[in-house]
Amino acid sequence: MGKLVSAQKQAIEAQAGVKLELLANGAGRGLTDLCAGQAEIALMGGSLKGVSEAMNKEKPGSVDISGLKEIPLTKVKVAFITHPGVGVKSLTDAQARDILTGKVTNWKEVGGADLPVKVVLAFAGDGARVTMQEALLKDATYLKTAIQRNSAKDISLVVSQLPGACGTLSVKNIDATVASVALEKDVEMPMSFVVKGELAGDVKKVVDAATALIH
């Protein structure tokens, strides 16, 4: 969401007649800031329900979604990425789930190189992580010993440099240093604004402008 809004920031400001202070710090943190009164709009990648549950699991009571309003904007694909040396071009959904949950421990088990699997995750409230949990893992949980990084932008950096590494990432954040692995079906992450209460004033102007510009 940070990249989507940043790309249209000047146009949104011009159309809404409002200056934006944009902090792309992750869906969960944005939601926490909104609930704490430190922001007027939260940029939400992933479902409001899923992200709020992930944040409250990490810190119980940190997010209260009662009274919040979600305004859908668009959807973005979430990719399963690996270090280029892994040598796997496609996986079944079951294989991908077994990798992310730790059942598959070596890439040779799914037709790849003889390398130990190393799962890299963004923080618990990350939209791509939550979306993959809901779409692919269901009731299963990510590998408890996964390498965790503070932001989504760090995922591709770690995966590109660590042999055997893999992770989940919005396609908007993928670059040529990692390999994208095809799954059985596309995983799409909803992108939205979240606000407190009914839309009014400058917040409504910003939301209306962004809704018209971001697709």
Molecular structure report:
The protein is α/β, with parallel strands linked by helices and 215 residues long. It has 2 domains: 2-75 and 189-213, D-Maltodextrin-Binding Protein, domain 2 (3-Layer(aba) Sandwich); 77-188, D-Maltodextrin-Binding Protein, domain 2. The protein is 35% helix and 20% strand. Strands 1, 2, 3, 4, 5, 6 and 7 form a 7-stranded mixed β-sheet that branches. Strand 3, helix 6 (127-137) and strand 4 (147-148) form a beta-alpha-beta unit. Helix 2 (9-16) crosses helix 8 and helix 3 crosses helix 4. The termini are close together. The model has no long low-confidence stretch (mean pLDDT 93).
- Name the shape in a single word: elongated
User: Distance between the terminal alpha carbons, to the nearest Å?
Assistant: 11 Å
Question: What does the largest sheet look like?
Answer: 7 strands, mixed
Q: Count of helical segments?
A: 8
CATH class of the largest domain: Alpha Beta
What fraction strand? Answer: 15-25%
How many structural domains in the coordinates? 2
Q: Return the structural class.
A: alpha/beta
Mean pLDDT: 93
| Chain oligomer state | single chain
Low-confidence stretches: none
Radius of gyration: 18 Å
The CATH superfamily of the largest domain appears as Periplasmic binding protein-like II
Number of strands: 7
CATH architecture of the largest domain: 3-Layer(aba) Sandwich
Order of helices and strands: HHHEHEHEHEHEEEH
Q: Any idea of the CATH topology of the largest domain?
A: D-Maltodextrin-Binding Protein, domain 2
